[in-house]
Design goal:
alpha/beta, 10 strands, about 15% strand
Length: about 350
């Protein structure tokens, strides 16, 4: 029997090595912010007259449009080194939704958070923030103005002086709040066959207003922006005499201080609504469309109902609905609460 030497024996061919392919990164919870649905509101506004769509921001993971601003501001600060995971503490003033959005983002990025709120913030909202690990501080009205926002800002400034490695996103003055809403308007623009004739949105920090309006201007869209403000708010100028007796209790739109982000010319029209208008708007939206929406969504809906008299036939309107109504069950959707305040 002849045995071949190792030198002459044929070698088994090695199996070809699979090329290393980088596995795409799976989306995390932060990656789900944005791309919210645009739904027809045909039961509330019959399309035979004009078409209305609602941009449902409650489908963001933190439950509101504020997720967009929170991500934009926090990620920018992380990229510049102003925030350091495991070291820095974010300090911010909020009436609810931004606080929740920041709490989720800060928990995700291993950042501390102190959120300064006021008594209008619901117990549920404060509990959600604490569940994410945030510290919640409640302040009372500013003694000079009788408003909550100046008192919240004053407390934020105190905390910045005393808390090590503290960082204030300053939602009222942070350009990255507004820039987040270039994407909001881009999503609306791409979802429709043509640009809407009207965009209705609630004005608070005016980040949504400015970001959407800047996108509209940059792309030369024919869309007219209707800013919905609260009666008694100072955003677009001092309140008229008839407004001064109205005290706002529903958060999410309006402000006691003019936001530095504001560019008044970006709003083609301003409409003001009362707290009772918000309640009616929310309950009408629920009854007609089965959408359980929050207070500022009710404000936008109320403004649209009033605008029906002057919107031209065949127009297309989009209403940005900032949040859901599950955080307002003890207020807007409580008959006893409504009766105690409005009779």
């Amino acid at each position: 029997m002849t045995v071949a030497s190792s030198a002459s024996a044929p070698r088994a061919s090695a199996a070809p090595r699979a090329a290393a392919v980088a596995r795409p990164r799976d989306p995390d919870i932060v990656a789900t912010i944005g791309a919210t649905p645009l739904v027809a509101l045909d039961r509330l506004f019959p399309p035979a007259r004009f078409q209305v769509y609602g941009k449902c921001e409650r489908f963001n993971p933190g439950g509101s449009v504020k997720d967009r601003a929170a991500r934009s501001m926090i990620e920018h600060a992380l990229s510049t080194g102003e925030l350091v995971p495991g070291v820095s503490t974010v300090v911010e003033s909020s009436s609810g939704n931004l606080g929740i959005a920041l709490a989720q983002l800060c928990n995700f990025h291993r950042l501390g958070l102190i959120c300064v709120v006021d008594p209008r913030t619901t117990a549920q909202n404060a509990a959600i923030m604490r569940a994410y690990g945030a510290k919640v501080e409640v302040v009372d009205r500013d003694p000079e103005t009788g408003e909550y926002l100046p008192a919240r800002i004053a407390r934020v400034r105190e905390l910045l002086r005393t808390v090590p490695d503290a960082y204030w996103p300053d939602q009222y003055g942070n350009e990255h709040n507004a820039r987040a809403h270039h994407d909001t308007m881009r999503e609306i623009h791409r979802a429709l066959p043509r640009a809407p004739d009207y965009l209705f949105l609630a004005a608070g920090t005016t980040g949504t207003l400015r970001g959407c309006a800047e996108y509209i201007a940059a792309h030369e869209l024919p869309t007219r922006v209707v800013a919905v403000d609260a009666v008694g708010s100072v955003i677009f100028g001092p309140p008229e005499p008839w407004e001064r007796g109205h005290r706002r209790t529903i958060p999410g739109h309006g402000a006691a201080v003019v936001p530095p982000l504001l560019r008044p010319h970006l709003a083609d029209r301003v409409m003001k609504v009362t707290d009772l208008d918000c309640v009616r708007g929310c309950r009408t939206l629920l009854a007609k469309e089965s959408i359980l929406a929050g207070g500022s969504s009710g404000a936008v809906t109320a403004a649209l109902l009033d605008a029906a008299s002057w919107i031209e036939p065949g127009a297309t309107c989009v209403a940005i609905l900032p949040d859901g109504g599950d955080r307002y069950l003890d207020t807007i959707y409580s008959d006893s609460w409504v009766e105690s305040r409005f009779g």
